[in-house]
Amino acid sequence: MLKVGLTGGIGCGKSTAADLFAELGAPVIDADLISHELVKPGAPALLEISRQFGPDILTADGALDRDKMRELVFSRPACKKQLEAILHPLVYTEMQRLMKILDYPYVILCIPLLLETNMQHFVDRILVIDCPVDEQIKRVKLRSRHSEETIKAIVASQVSREQRLSAADDIIDNSGDATKLAEHIKKLHNLYL
């Protein structure tokens, strides 16, 4: 089975692209969704996060306080590494488990931090969904309540656009309209089949 690593900067349209592949029948395994499952109240990963970062990182109902965690990891690089050391191995292990039960010519592995985690070897091809940084910032501002400063910090914490594009086997410029994105996805779907 061909393993396609779908990646891109925040706000570039990775989720939309993954949804379009799924609509065409392709299996999609999303690292972010797995990560959310791993930090549900009572989950072992969340207990380890709470142990390492203190109980203040949890909400009153025992869930991960995502705003506090985000603030912590973007203000203190050592905390970011600490969190990644807990979550990333678990995410990749779960992705491998899910791939073993698939029967399809290819799988889309939606991994926003594929390059940041140096896991290029985990996939056979890298598909980058791309758009200019100012477009990324605009899109994230529309869909979230993050300040522009926070969004810029997130963008800065990711590999540069140039690094992402140079690592790509396939690139979709998603600065246009949704119809063009769907057309590109159909072409790549046929290629991957």
Share in helix? 40-55%
Order of helices and strands: EHEHHHHEEHHHEH
**Could you name the CATH homologous superfamily of the largest domain?**
P-loop containing nucleotide triphosphate hydrolases
Strand order of the largest sheet: 2-3-1-4-5
CATH topology of the largest domain: Rossmann fold
As a percent range, the share of strand residues is 5-15%
- Uncertain stretches of 5 or more adjacent residues: none
Describe what this molecule looks like in 3D.
With 193 residues, this protein is of the alpha/beta class. The chain has a 5-stranded parallel beta sheet, with helices on both faces. The mean pLDDT is 92. The protein is built from 9 helices and 5 strands, in the order E-H-E-H-H-H-H-E-E-H-H-H-E-H. The chain is globular, with a radius of gyration of 17 Å. It has 2 domains: 1-27 and 105-193, 3-Layer(aba) Sandwich (Rossmann fold), CATH 3.40.50; 36-101, no CATH class. 54% of the residues lie in helices and 12% in strands.
Notable characteristics:
193 residues; alpha/beta; Rossmann fold; 2 domains; five-stranded parallel beta sheet; 54% helix; 12% strand; globular
Can I get a quick summary?
The protein contains nine helices and five strands, in the order E-H-E-H-H-H-H-E-E-H-H-H-E-H. The chain is of the alpha/beta class.
Secondary structure elements and their pairing?
Blueprint: E1 2-7, H1 14-23, E2 28-30, H2 31-38, H3 44-53, H4 66-75, H5 77-100, E3 106-110, E4 125-130, H6 133-143, H7 148-157, H8 161-167, E5 170-173, H9 178-192
Parallel strand pairs: 1-3, 1-4, 2-3, 4-5
Helix pairs in contact: 2-5, 3-5, 4-5, 6-7
